[in-house]
Amino acid sequence: MAEIGQDIIQAKNLLDQGELVAIPTETVYGLAGNARNESAVARIFEVKKRPFFDPLIVHIGAISQLSEIADDLPSWAEALAHKFWPGPLTLVLPKSPAIPDLVSAGLPTVAVRMPNHNLTLNLLSTLSYPLAAPSANPFGYISPTTAEHVQAQLGDDIAYILDGGPCMVGIESTIVGYDDSNAIIYRKGGIPLEEIAEITGSLTRVEDHSDPLAPGMLKSHYAPSKKVVMGEISDLLKTHASQQIGILSFRKQFSEVAASRQIQLTSDGDLKEAAKNLFAALRKLDAMPITHILVEPVPDQGLGQAINDRLRRASS
Ligand code: TXA
Ligand code: MG
């Protein structure tokens, strides 16, 4: 079992020695190691059972650190960083040689973000290197939004979990890159696309196909072990009447199923609240004595787009 606590010095000492520490962010918990230490980075892939072709995000504590990570900061990226950092936005930029190729899976670009969580920003300010950190879950499973989620799955493989409480956003960062003419969305996330487009103009989306450049976009991802079925719940209740069923709905309760086997993402239709509750709700349902989890799409606007994206992948 990993120790759980709020001791930044202990976290720093472990990281300085090349060990891994789970860190809180506003989106999900990360499995962090020194981004410039190749053996620490290799250990991240090993603990997560993540394929080496799937690149990591580098976390920094101040925008000024960008020059140590990215070789070039296009003006669109600077504008996005100043508008949304610290916050749930990841930028894909030309990689500096100071970052090992292992971090970027050999790509000429590197993903970087400044997370919005006091404990982790304080930790980063004490370190002389940035932190490489994927979400702290086994590859393909639901991302963790509490220290206990991390403990349940990776506790035997890491020494320390920095406990920052439940994640306030609850869904991973939006990932934005660029080609010659267009901003490219690699993953929908905590910053709604509408807000990105206000700065970048038109957006191209890399989605709905398995692209090794952005495995977060793999069709099947974020998946519980129970079968997840997505659609209109009133219809699904008819077609799955003979199954052991749990329900994850946006806000409605259904009389056909025991209340104890239903979770509503929000009581009043708030998409922020729904995003914050999403992964913990999927984990709770996954632990119930049921065979199928019925889910319905939420309103497809703002954060709802990222929520629907995760629900679709969980059900794929
Ligand atoms: O909110 C988040 O982004 C969380 C917290 C811990 O910061 N991190 C996270 O990391 O979700 P991870 O490793 O689970 O997902 C990172 C995604 C992957 O889908 C990866 O393929 C993509 O970022 N990625 C990383 N580098 C990339 C690059 N150079 N080009 C395109 N996609 C990249
Ligand atoms: Mg992940």
CATH class of the largest domain: Alpha Beta
Tally the beta strands. Answer: 15
What form results from the Cα inertia axes? globular
Query: Which class of secondary structure composition applies to the elements?
Result: alpha/beta
The proportion of residues in beta strands is 15-25%
Helix content: 25-40%
Rg over CA atoms, rounded to whole Å, is: 19 Å
Mean pLDDT rating: 94
Order of helices and strands: EHEEHEHEEHEHEEEHEEHEEHEH
How many helical elements? 9
Give the termini separation: 32 Å
**Ligand inventory:** threonylcarbamoyladenylate, magnesium ion
CATH architecture of the largest domain: Alpha-Beta Complex
CATH topology of the largest domain: DHBP synthase
Strand order of the largest sheet: 1-8-2-3-7-4-6-5-9-10-11
pLDDT < 50 runs, ≥5 residues = none
User: Main beta sheet: strand number and arrangement?
Assistant: 11 strands, mixed
The tally of domains stands at 2
